[in-house]
Prior knowledge:
CATH topology of the largest domain: Rossmann fold
Oligomer: single chain
Structural class: alpha+beta
CATH class of the largest domain: Alpha Beta
Strand order of the largest sheet: 6-7-8-3-9-10
Helix content: 10-25%
Strand content: 25-35%
Shape: elongated
Amino acid sequence: MVHIPPQAGPAGAAPGQRPGGQAASLDVEHLEKVYGRTRVVSDLGFSLRGGELLTLLGPSGSGKTTTMRMIAGFEEPTRGDVRIGGVSVVEREVHKRDIGVVFQQYALFPHLTVFGNVAYPLQMRRIAKAEIARRVEAAVAMVRLGGFEGRLPRELSGGQQQRVALARAIVFEPRLLLMDEPMGALDKRLRELMQVEVRQLQRALGITTVSVTHDQVEALVMSDLIAVLDGGVLQQLGPPLDVYQRPANRFVADFLGESNLVEVTAVRRDGESWIATSRRGLSTRMDAQALQGRETASLVVVRPENICVGEAALDLPNCYLAEIRETLYVGDLVKYRCVTEGGDEFVVKSLGATGAPLPPGRTVSIGWRPEHCLAVAP
């Protein structure tokens, strides 16, 4: 892992700040976008403190890119407000919003060198040549491309091109950074490396950032906050751990990570805990916190990694016999598709280093703790 030290801007201010000031906050209030009869974004609102990174996460067509474009000024909202540092910017032109943008395809000028690409926003602001040289040198060093200033984009790898795009977005010290699918053009291994590098750089700069992605792992790795969108509606907003472990509804549970969704027909109290019964008669014991006040719950979520298989399941309050229908070995873990005697189906994830995978057709015990299942809104 590469350590990127904090860099200073004018008069000691970090990029994303003004001299003597704090990183800018971002407030989005009642934001909507309607095309004809189609509502693409509906009554969206969230707030970011200075220096935080929010990821807009959702499938294609969920409204995340439209939201980012409205913040940037590329799209005019049908309704709502966007405030940076407490000041509304919805009436400002794009170039007056003080926002840096990293696009999915980087949008580098192919005829300009690395230096030329990074210097471009400073030249447009009529910064003195000596100051441009100083800022470009600092930005290129921050993204670890020192010595590449004379190369053209076609002479760079995908990861290097992404770093150039990032340097160009931060070189003029914007108050807000927007990233639209910033890792989308990279292969899996490079994407994982760049997620960590970009997050380190964002933290070092202390710049308030909004990132757009459909990649759940990317959102979990990089974010202070995740906003899950579907159909232009905010489904859940919170820190990655909360959104993953306590999904607000079926969509969030199903979209973020992998979940076992058990439809239940009845929930009853049993001492200090609760018992939810599935449509096929499977009874699952839950604690009061996992029930989340949903005494009339119709859906219970159990994450595959929270299910034990074999002897480890025998002493658990929720323990059932199940037949392994499918075994998938993926190196670091094994995925089993199991079906209980009553017909309820569960996916189980087990560490791959614990021994030879169990074969399909084997009857095993599977189980989980009461705190590892969660009642969610349908």
